[in-house]
Write a structure and sequence with these properties.
The chain is mostly helical. 55% of the residues lie in helices and 0% in strands. It is built from 3 helices and no strands.
Length: 91
């Protein structure tokens, strides 16, 4: 289902309510977020990057991640991209 701007909604993967709330706050206002790894940092960052990319916006993110976590973020973005494209193809 397209949004008001004619673009399909972005497919996100945020299972926990606090992650969804945090994501909404970050997207709606300029915010500084300090979040520990055990609270879903990589999932929130991956979804945030995906949402900005899908909307064609610019974003600068500094993440204190090691090489393994950087790879996970890249893989997570690829999965979300495929899910979003699949949703568009099925409409």
């Amino acid at each position: 289902m397209p949004t008001d701007n004619g673009k399909p909604p972005v497919k996100l993967s945020l299972p926990l309510e606090y992650q969804q709330d945090l994501f909404s706050e970050i997207r709606s206002e300029d915010e500084l977020v300090v979040l520990a790894r055990g609270l879903g940092l990589l999932r929130v960052v991956t979804n945030l990057l995906h949402s900005y990319d899908a909307a064609g916006n610019n974003l600068i993110v500094i993440v204190g991640a090691d090489e393994r976590e950087n790879e996970w973020i890249g893989e997570g973005r690829a999965v979300l991209y495929k899910l979003s494209r699949l949703q568009v193809a099925n409409q």
